[in-house]
Amino acid sequence: MTARDHLRGALVAFALFFMLVLPWGLPGASELKSLQRPFRIAQSWGLYGVGPANAWVFEVWFEDEVVYRAGDMDHTWLRSVFRYRRVRPVVVNTCRNKSKNAHGLANVVVRRALEENPNLTEISIRCTRSPWPGTEPQEVHRLTMHAPNWYPY
Amino acid sequence: MDSRPLRLVQIFVAMAIIGDMVALVVRGASDAVLFPRSLGGISSEPGNWLLVEWGAYTGPALWALVVVSLLFVILGVATRPALVVALISYAEFGHMYTPGDRGIDRILRTAMLILVFSAVSEAKWGEKVASWPSDLIRWLLVMVYLDAGWAKYKRASGWLEMQPFPELYEVMAAPNIGRWDPVMMAEYPWIFVAGGWYTFALEASALLLLTRFAPYWAVFGVFMHLGIAATMELGMFPFGMLALYPVLFAPWIAKWRPRSVPAEALRTPV
């Protein structure tokens, strides 16, 4: 074996330890985690282990009219934004009242709504929850914004 | 090993991320993602490691840095420095907009970090390079799939047993993600139980990625990720994962050469 092979083996062994330690809480994990933060490579692992126990539906209403409803092709206002993978986590967590960015999402909704409909007086974000297959929705959360200050509450 | 699989991983990872960045603009989400809440965006709290402060230009500048540097990676121009710039700017992008920095972003940054130290950036197409980056990326994939399989094993009855609403149905039918009608899908629970078995078997057998059976496993993995792309609107996730697959197909790629290229050209030592 050449020196390069030894170096390769050492690098692989170190990297294996690095990767083994981190997800399973073995010694050194907390110290090595600090190295992960600058590059944002820390993982929570366990992709898609559990599906949502209920059907959560995010809706946007302009006064008394629904303009967007998740999964409803008849109400698709800003659908491409709400379903974009970087925005959807905020949408989902807003529905579960767990998002610290819910007001930011509401402000985006208000701004885009007023660009198209400057005479609106009320805009609301509503979330419903239903047992599967989603035919019994019950409203569980609402953010309402009124003119003129449009602050979400 | 032949440099082609690693070079393909570089190219495909770059394409996946650029595709996601373009989608951000095409889908009309740039004002929501690229600017902080004080300027009309969504996110109010950047990550602690956001080191750049360019005011209103932070988001757009990071977006441009990621896209341009990855274009250099695809074109093979100053590949290693471009990869370093891409990795750092992509991480900063994640620090800037933390709610949208998902697991796939972290997986791809881990792969980029590995590739930064690989000789593939300077190697000619088909030239021999050290294989440890490929070994590490394979190990990364083993970790990802084994952990996903373990997460499913903990809810095994939901994934593997016939019931009205299997776990796979609940994942795929979520209104904010799924492409199909949940009411229609509920009439065929057996499809989702079969899919649950397929997925669980694939993930539980991920150690095969460290053996000569890796290419055959990867064929099934390709079908799984294409199925994910067809049934759920997850954006970059399935394509980002598939971007790492060339290292799994390395034995098959190594055997392939265009008719115009003599076999000796692909065996030139470093």
Provide an overview of this structure.
The complex is a heterodimer of chains A (about 150) and B (about 270). Chain A has about 150 residues and is an alpha+beta fold. Chain A has 2 domains: about 5-40, no CATH class; about 55-145, no CATH class. Chain A has 5 helices and 4 strands; from the N terminus they run H-H-E-E-H-H-H-E-E. In chain A, strands 2-1-3-4 form a 4-stranded antiparallel β-sheet. In chain A, a hairpin with a 7-residue loop joins strand 3 and strand 4. The longest helix of chain A has 22 residues, at about 5-25. The N and C termini of chain A lie far apart (about 70 Å). The model of chain A has no long low-confidence stretch (mean pLDDT about 85). Chain B has about 270 residues and is an all-alpha fold. Chain B contains 13 helices and no strands. Chain B has 2 domains: about 1-125, no CATH class; about 130-255, no CATH class. Chain B is about 60% helix and about 0% strand. Chain B has helices at about 5-25, 30-35, 60-75, 80-95, 105-115, 130-155, 155-160, 165-175, 180-185, 190-205, 215-230, 235-245, 250-255.
